[in-house]
């Protein structure tokens, strides 16, 4: 029997265990090649120029390599330990460690570089689809063509060849450092089984749950005004991060075992086969895998959180633009208004013009806000825009009343503005007390007139005239008239926007286009969403594969147990139901904890990114859950085969 035959036999024997590893490798190579191809694609010039897309894609490719490298090295560690007995047998029949290393290297070479070739071809085939997705989410009007980049091929080959060398170094170190006896003990010593919980573990379990809950609670107070300066805010963020991560580690180290131990005690120690196969196994397995599960949970939460926030911004682009610019076009300069309306008339585009007088007033809002802004020194006083209720449909206030409109979610969260209360509008000589009767998000002037997100006060015409006669000139804008232009025919909006841009009106301060704001926000957040989405998908697949490989290990180790249970008369169906519960916990617990972490992270600061929270966040979470569940189903199918072969 020569070495080549051994290589062939081993490769054939182990290929059923490598299929998911090969898939993950093909996917990673294909995605990396596609990303690098995008960097060298000439059609990306518009994306690169407008959004620094090249830098974003370059950073993404580096992160992608880091994720893939960690996954491949960890997966190789699992595989080399699983084959430790095989390596020991090779040594027993007289093969030297050098020849054994050559056999393993040849197997890895065939699998690794074979997968690389397939991955490059798959990446090339998918590069046009990926480019189309990028153009779609960023709103770039360009044709996506299929181009092969030799530069991308060389870069991909160098990167993955370097990872292969690291894998070979790891294998050589493992084989060199193990004796024949230790090779036969590697698998049996990989898991630390503890049958009885100590008091320390109980305390750690409770502490883990407590730290996570405290971190969640502080996150809900992060931007509620409880932290009055940047130092306190930064320290709170560090505390939340540390508390949740340490709490997650302790949760896997002790909390899971503690909770399941309580369940077991509540049953008096009498567990069904399903409970033995699920609860009892997980109690001790998760403890030994606490660090790995903490990393997977934390990065999963980060991926879900970042993707949710970017999708919130993308999803809210239109509403955010309408809140910042209530009309299709906002023009502050009179000459620009005349030029634009004249150009619209010449192009036979029907439009409506809205003109509003706007004044800036110093308002005392100390009785209706939840924070004093000690850091800024405002002490409840702020400069707000004031407009008259005259000409505003469905709004009519009395001389003693004021309505706040157009306040952004971020300002509302920071200031905790009450819906009703007493305020004062102060001119240069007199102060006018007013009763705040409500707040809403409807905007009537552009954000630059409304001081970038602060509420706009709507008052009675008589009060507006009094304030206008008593203006403080130091706080007024360059112009006190807001001009809004709306296009009557929706089909002509893009043509009107082209006229707006061609005239150069948008380059002047105060002149804004609603459609341009929507396009810019979707372009910027679309690129971020594209990058985070694909990186998150890569991590999801690699982490799912790692959990699957761990289940393969456990399945092979527990095979004798299934043999005994089958001989006692339990059917495949009996055992499979217990395995299904086990996989539900194995994959469900990290998923639920990761989703919980991401929810509280997103909930604490989503208002900085857009106007919609639930729809974008739920869509992202459901998609992530569906893809993640695939690995749980694959694990059940693997165990089904193990149970079938147990007898």
Tell me, rounded to a whole number, the average pLDDT: 87
Runs in which pLDDT lies below 50 for 5 or more consecutive residues are: 189-194, 372-377
Strand order across the largest sheet: 3-4-8-5-7-6
Secondary structural class: alpha+beta
For the biggest sheet, the summary is: 6 strands, mixed, barrel
Rg over C-alpha atoms, rounded to the nearest angstrom: 32 Å
- State the helix count: 20
**Percent range for β-strand residues:** 5-15%
Give the SSE order as H and E letters.
HHHHHHHHHHHHEHEEEEHEEEHEHEHHHH
What is the total tally of β strands? Answer: 10
CA-to-CA gap between the ends?
A: 31 Å
**What best-fitting shape do the alpha-carbon axes yield?**
elongated
The percent of residues in helical segments reads 55-70%
Short description:
With 647 residues, this protein is an alpha+beta fold. The protein has 20 helices and ten strands.
Description:
With 647 residues, this protein is α+β, with helices and mostly antiparallel strands. Helix content is 66%, strand content 9%. The protein is built from 20 helices and ten strands. The longest helix has 44 residues, at 514-557. The two termini are 31 Å apart.
């Amino acid at each position: 029997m020569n070495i080549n035959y051994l290589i062939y036999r081993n490769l054939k024997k182990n290929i059923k265990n490598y299929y998911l590893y090969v898939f993950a490798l093909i996917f990673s190579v294909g995605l990396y090649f596609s990303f690098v191809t995008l960097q060298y694609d000439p059609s990306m010039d518009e994306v690169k120029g407008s959004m620094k897309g090249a830098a974003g894609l370059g950073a993404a490719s580096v992160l992608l390599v880091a994720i893939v490298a960690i996954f491949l090295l960890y997966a190789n560690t699992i595989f080399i330990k699983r084959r430790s007995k095989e390596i020991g047998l090779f040594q027993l029949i007289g093969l030297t460690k050098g020849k054994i290393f050559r056999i393993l290297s040849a197997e890895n070479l065939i699998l690794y570089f074979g997968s690389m070739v397939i991955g490059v071809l798959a990446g090339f085939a998918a590069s046009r689809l990926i480019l189309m997705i990028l153009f779609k989410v960023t709103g770039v009007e360009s044709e996506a063509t299929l181009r092969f980049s030799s530069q991308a091929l060389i870069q991909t080959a160098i990167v993955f060849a370097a990872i292969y060398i690291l894998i070979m170094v790891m294998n050589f170190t493992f084989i060199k450092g193990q004796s024949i006896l230790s090779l036969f003990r590697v698998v049996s010593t990989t898991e630390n089984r503890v049958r009885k919980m100590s008091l320390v573990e109980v305390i750690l379990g409770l502490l883990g749950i407590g730290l996570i809950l405290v971190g969640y609670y502080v996150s809900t107070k992060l931007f509620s005004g409880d932290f009055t300066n940047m130092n306190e805010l930064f320290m709170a963020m560090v505390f939340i991060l540390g508390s949740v991560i340490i709490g997650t580690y302790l949760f896997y180290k002790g909390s899971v075992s503690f909770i399941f131990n309580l369940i077991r005690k509540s049953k008096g120690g009498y567990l069904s086969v399903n409970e033995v196969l699920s609860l009892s196994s997980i109690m001790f397995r998760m403890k030994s895998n606490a660090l790995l599960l903490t990393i997977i949970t934390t990065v999963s939460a980060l991926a879900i959180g970042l993707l949710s926030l970017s999708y919130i911004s993308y999803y809210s682009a239109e509403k955010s633009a309408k809140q910042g610019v209530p009309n299709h076009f906002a023009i502050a300069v009179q000459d620009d208004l005349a030029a634009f309306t004249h150009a619209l008339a010449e192009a036979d585009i029907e439009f409506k013009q809205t003109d509003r007088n706007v004044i800036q007033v110093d308002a005392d809002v100390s009785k209706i806000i939840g924070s004093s802004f000690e850091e800024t020194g405002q002490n409840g006083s702020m400069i707000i825009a004031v407009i008259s209720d005259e000409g505003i449909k469905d709004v009519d206030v009395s001389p003693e009343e004021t309505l706040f409109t157009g306040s952004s979610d971020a300002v509302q969260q920071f200031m905790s503005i009450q819906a009703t209360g007493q305020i004062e509008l102060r001119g240069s000589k007199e102060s006018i007390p007013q009763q705040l009767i409500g707040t809403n998000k409807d905007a009537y002037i552009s954000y630059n007139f409304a001081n970038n997100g602060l509420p706009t006060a709507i008052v009675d015409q008589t009060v507006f005239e009094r304030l206008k006669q008593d203006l403080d000139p130091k706080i007024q804008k360059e112009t006190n008239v807001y001009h809004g232009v709306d296009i009557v025919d929706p089909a002509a909006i893009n043509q009107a926007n082209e006229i707006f841009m061609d005239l150069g009106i948008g380059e002047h301060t105060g002149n804004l286009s609603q459609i341009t704001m929507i396009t810019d926000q979707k372009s910027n957040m679309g690129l971020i969403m594209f990058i985070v989405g694909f990186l998150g998908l890569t991590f999801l697949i690699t982490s799912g594969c790692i959990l699957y490989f761990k289940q393969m290990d456990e399945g092979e180790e527990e095979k004798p147990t299934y043999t005994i249970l089958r001989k006692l008369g339990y059917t495949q169906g009996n055992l499979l139901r217990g395995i299904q519960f086990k996989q539900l916990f194995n994959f469900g617990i990290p998923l639920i904890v990761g989703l919980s972490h991401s929810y509280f992270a997103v909930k604490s600061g989503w208002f900085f990114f857009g106007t919609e929270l639930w729809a974008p966040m739920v869509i992202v979470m459901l998609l992530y859950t569906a893809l993640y569940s695939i690995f749980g189903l694959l694990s059940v199918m693997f165990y089904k085969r193990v149970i079938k072969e147990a007898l």
